[in-house]
Amino acid sequence: MRIVAAIVWVSGLLICGLTACTPAATPDRDGTCSLGALPPEAAATVELIEAGGPFPHPRSDGTRFGNYEGRLPERDRDHYREYTVPTPGLGHRGTRRIVTGGDPPDFYYTDDHYESFCLIGDA
């Protein structure tokens, strides 16, 4: 018997995996979101970024994010870095990320693997 985990998007309100559902990020009209409105794992990831790690996926976390989708402001090639936001119950990286860029850095959150972002206004 084979069990396949699926990620389901329900009206932009929930992201459900095989074992858990978490609220999806709902950006304000200006494209920002509050860190407190995101899943708690996002706040923990911001803390890890600010502390310099250690990260749960050291081969992937902190690597260059290419912004190939063009959904973030256009910047130099090495401007953005991406970090995994763990999803409870998943045995892989999932779709949630925080992307940083700048000095001081801006923090962007995506829960749909780069399809959309919100700028975390209070990170």
TrEMBL record:
**A Gene Ontology MF term for this entry?**
RNA endonuclease activity
Q: Where is this region: Disordered?
A: 51-95
The domain of life is Bacteria
Q: Which SUPFAM superfamilies match?
A: Microbial ribonucleases
A Pfam family it matches: Ribonuclease
Leader sequence range is 1-20
* Name by which UniProt lists this protein: Ribonuclease
Taxonomic source organism: Mycolicibacterium diernhoferi
